[in-house]
From TrEMBL:
It comes from the Bacteria. InterPro entries: SecB. This is Protein-export chaperone SecB. It holds the Pfam family SecB.
Length: 117
């Protein structure tokens, strides 16, 4: 029998979320990339997972601020559960105790990253 790993609550875990987006004006397509990196001194592994989503718009969004908000709030909120599940399943299938990323409030994250003047 192997050594039992400490539960997730016994480990110090750091998770970093980064996003980027690009809008193709001619195709009316927004490409969102979301990357989650997990590590920590007490972790027996480091994990980096990147997911991407494509969003097709009926209309062209010309205002850069509106586009950024739609990408970082709406599109991110749609994409995050899939990336979150991928992280959880990858760790579970590797035989480690469950690690579930907490839900994210992308409205609050947007306000924090882009304070109004």
């Amino acid at each position: 029998m192997g050594e039992e790993l400490p539960s997730a609550s016994d480990r110090e875990v750091s998770a970093n979320l980064t996003m980027s987006h690009q809008f193709e004006l001619e195709k009316k397509v927004l490409k969102l990339s979301m990357k989650v990196e997990i590590g920590g001194a007490d972790m027996p592994f480091a994990l980096s997972i990147e997911g991407g989503s494509l969003f097709v718009f009926d209309n062209v969004v010309t205002d850069a601020n509106d586009l950024r908000k739609v990408a970082e709030v709406n599109c991110a909120a749609i994409t995050f559960p899939y990336v979150r599940e991928l992280v959880s399943e990858t760790i579970r299938r590797a035989g480690f105790p469950p690690l579930n990323l907490p839900p994210m409030n992308f409205v609050e994250l947007y306000k924090k990253n882009h304070p109004e003047p």
